[in-house]
Amino acid sequence: MWQRYTFYDFRVIAHYLGVLLTLVGIGMIVPLVVAFATKEWEPAHRYLFSVGLALTLGSALRMARIEPGRLNRQQAIAITSFAWLAAALMGAVPLVMSNHYGSYLDALFDAMALFTTTGASIVSQPDHLSYADSIWRLVTMYSGGLGLVVVAMSFGVFGAVTDSSLYDSEGHSEHVLPNVVQTAQFTIKLSLAVIGAASVVLIACMLAHGMTLARSLFHGVFMAVSSFMTVGLSPNSTNVAYYHSVVIEVVLMVLMLLGSINFSLQSEVIKGRIEAFLHDMEIRSGALWIMIMLAIFAASIAGVALLSNAPTMLRMGLFTFVSASTTAGFATLTSNQLNAVFPSGALLVLAIAMAIGGSSGSTSGGIKLRRIVIIGKSAIETMKITASPDSARIQTSYYHIGRMRLGAAEVKEAMTVFIMFVLVYIVGALAGIALGYDAVDALMESIAMASNGGMSAGITSAGMPIALKVIYIAEMWAGRLEFVTLLAVGIKILVSCKPRLASRAQKGDR
């Protein structure tokens, strides 16, 4: 029996979606200020209008319930689910008003890709984006990487009603600190510290390569945020290849790997618990997984003429693989070059790496290493039980921020999410195949969207079919929420509407 949403629930949900829209409007003030500072008057008009629209709609939604009271879990998962769609719908407004998108759907595609840190883009002439638009991209991918609810909590937007329901329903399974608000604030502080340090290094590298100070500052901060948040966007059309720097690529790889590690595990290192970090199942399984897949990837590209010499193979191959496995999506090659240089086997390896992704509680997308390990340990436990006498008691444990015992609930959750990801990967691939695209390209593209990896095989473009744009937007949205939350809310809303539809039908018969 599904618990129905009441009219009161919908009013509470509307109120807090209004709060989040207000937060989006406040975020738009940043590019607005930049537009005024750089005398970009056309973008200034766009962002001024968008700020006003966001604040107006946000205030109107908040009027649905003036004093909403304390949130329950059912309301929290609905707020989290629709927060991402609401943010993308509003975030697309200033973008579509520019001359870089052919339609609102194209702008919505980019906005969803930014907020979900997928990093895919169909913007035209990205090199000619205004500073204001580039800063808006920066704001959206940073807030999306942390999580919209995390950002809202850290600023106390939800006031006294904050509890673990909102935090957990966004896919954050672990709390660094006992209080979720403190955990959200710690996550922001840690990310700012890492991004700040990385920005200094990247700015120095770019200055050394002849960039002006202003461009170095902008590119350094942008790339630091994009890599640590595993977004994979750059301020130019040629992505990382624009910089022609081995040092910058190495820095970006380090940041991508850091971004793919659980924030709770990073807090263990800060506390000096290095041994706990090294013994964690996600770190060990992740290292083993990367080594195995990297060896297969290297073997698959060994025969490629362009990568025949070791330095080129190491530089281009390693960077591409790290970018895929962390679901960042950076590339030193264009989509067409990726298809031309790498054989289909190598593309399949990259797709599988994106499909799994990084650690839970990180900025990476995908199924997550923790779930793969839990499913594997559950399978081993099942085999042990089968091979043991009836009197034997088999218990499986694992080390993840302390010794933990494998439970049925964990296995069920891991299997459910795993199955949902695989199904969506397949459905998205079949949609691409049905619309005439190559099977391997369609599979890689579907995985890139649902895992929020963003490494395109060349399908993503302004000219792709409208149906595919809608499917990819849905994949990015659902993948960021790891499906269960969004599907549960969708079913509950449908169930909640049934009595109303039935009563209307009865009135019509009379």
From TrEMBL:
What Pfam families does this protein map onto?
TrkH (PF02386)
**Which InterPro entries would you find in this protein's record?**
Cat_transpt
Q: How does it sit in the membrane?
A: Multi-pass membrane protein
TM annotation in the entry: 12-38, 44-64, 76-97, 135-161, 186-205, 241-265, 286-307, 340-359, 414-437, 449-471
- Chief location of this protein? membrane
Q: Which GO terms describe its biological process?
A: metal ion transport
* Keywords for this protein: Cell membrane, Ion transport, Membrane, Transmembrane, Transmembrane helix, Transport
Q: Where in the cell is it found?
A: Cell membrane
Query: What GO molecular function terms would the record report?
Result: monoatomic cation transmembrane transporter activity
Cite a GO CC annotation.
plasma membrane
Organism's domain of life?
Bacteria
The UniProt similarity line reads:
Belongs to the TrkH potassium transport family.
Protein name as annotated: Trk system potassium uptake protein TrkH
Q: Which organism is it from?
A: Denitrobacterium detoxificans
